[in-house]
Design goal:
294 residues, five-stranded parallel β-sheet, 10 helices, 5 strands
Length: 294
C-alpha cells in the first residue's frame, strides 16, 4: 500500500524565473551531478585504476602500471588514513550546538532532505530511510519541544534522471508516525539541491522579520546550507546533527573499514568543492561562513 500523504499545503512550488535563469540553473545542476560525481575521490581513483588496467594491454603498459599503483595507493590512503576526518572536522565544528537562550521559542523548523530514499520508498510503498536519520529524529523531538513551531521538510529528488518519487512525499508519513500533526507540516517537494532548498523554503513560508527559524541538517553540510539560506535572504539558526567525526583527538584515528573512510573522504571533498564552486559562481557570499557575531 502506498503510504504517501498529501502535504498540508500545496508544495509543488516552482519560482517564476526567466527562461535563461532556468536554463542556467539546470545546467549547473547537471554539471554538479555528472562532473561533480566523477571527481569524488572514490569514483575518480577507480576510474584512474580502470584506465591503467586497460593501458596494461597496450604499448603504454608502463604508464598503466603507474596509474594502477597510484590509484590503489591513494584509495588506501583515502579509505584507511585520517584524511576524511581532517576534511570533515573543520566543517562539523564550524557551528556550535544550538542553544535556545532566553529569547522567544522558534517560529519554525526547516529540515533538509537526503535521509529518505524516494525511489526505494515508492517501490516498497513505505518510507525508507537510508542515511542521516538524525535529521528526522531531531526535528521530531524539536517539534514536540516547541509545539507552536511550523515544520518544513525540504526535499525533492536529487537524481539526474528523476521519476515522480520525491522525499517530501514520504516524510509526512514519518513525522505523523512520530506524533507530529499533519496540520503543522509543510512539504517542499520541488527542490533538487541545497540552493533550491533555501529558495523554495523561503517562498513557501515567507518568513517575517524577527521570526526565529531553525535549520536542521548534517553538521558537515551546515556551512554550505547556512551560506545559501543567507544568500536567499532567509536568516536561520543552525541546528547541526549527524556528526561523522568526534573530538579533535579523533583526527589522528585510523579506520579499520575502508568503506567508512572513503565515505568520509568523499563527503569532505564534496562539501569543500561545493563551497568553493558556489562562492566562485556568486551563489554564496562567503567561502567558509561561520556564526553571526552576537
Amino acid at each position: 500500500m502506498d503510504t504517501r500523504v498529501k502535504p498540508a499545503y500545496d508544495t509543488e512550488y516552482e519560482p517564476r524565473r526567466r527562461r535563461s535563469s532556468v536554463r542556467h540553473s539546470s545546467l549547473f545542476f547537471v554539471l554538479s551531478k555528472t562532473i561533480g560525481a566523477m571527481l569524488l575521490p572514490t569514483n575518480f581513483l577507480i576510474g584512474v585504476g580502470f584506465i591503467g588496467a586497460i593501458l596494461l594491454l597496450t604499448r603504454f603498459a608502463s604508464l598503466g602500471r603507474k596509474l594502477v599503483m597510484a590509484s590503489v595507493l591513494l584509495l588506501v590512503i583515502c579509505g584507511l588514513s585520517p584524511l576524511g576526518n581532517y576534511l570533515l572536522y573543520p566543517l562539523e565544528s564550524r557551528f556550535p550546538p544550538w542553544e535556545a537562550g532566553s529569547g522567544a521559542p522558534p517560529d519554525g523548523i526547516i529540515i533538509l532532505g537526503a535521509s529518505i530514499e524516494a525511489d526505494l520508498s515508492a517501490a516498497h510503498g513505505t518510507p525508507v530511510v537510508r542515511s542521516a536519520p538524525d535529521r528526522i529524529i531531531t526535528a521530531a523531538a524539536l517539534a514536540h519541544r516547541f509545539p507552536n513551531a511550523r515544520i518544513v521538510f525540504s526535499g525533492g529528488s536529487a537524481n539526474l534522471i528523476s521519476n515522480d518519487a520525491r522525499e517530501a512525499d514520504f516524510a509526512g508519513a514519518i513525522f505523523e508516525s512520530l506524533g507530529i500533526s499533519k496540520s503543522r507540516l509543510i512539504m517542499e517537494r520541488a527542490s533538487r539541491n541545497t540552493l533550491e532548498n533555501a529558495q523554495f523554503s523561503k517562498a513557501l513560508v515567507a518568513p517575517k522579520e524577527g521570526e526565529r527559524w531553525l535549520l536542521v541538517t548534517s553538521a558537515f553540510h551546515m556551512p554550505r546550507s547556512v551560506a545559501l539560506f543567507r544568500k536567499a535572504g532567509f536568516p536561520v539558526e543552525p541546528y547541526p546533527v549527524d556528526w561523522r567525526v568526534g573530538a579533535r583527538g579523533d583526527l589522528l584515528s585510523f579506520t579499520n573499514s575502508a568503506i567508512d573512510g572513503l565515505g568520509r573522504t568523499d563527503l569532505g571533498v564534496r562539501e569543500w568543492v561545493g563551497l568553493i564552486v558556489y562562492w566562485a559562481t556568486g551563489r554564496i557570499d562567503e567561502v567558509f561562513p561561520g556564526p553571526v557575531p552576537k
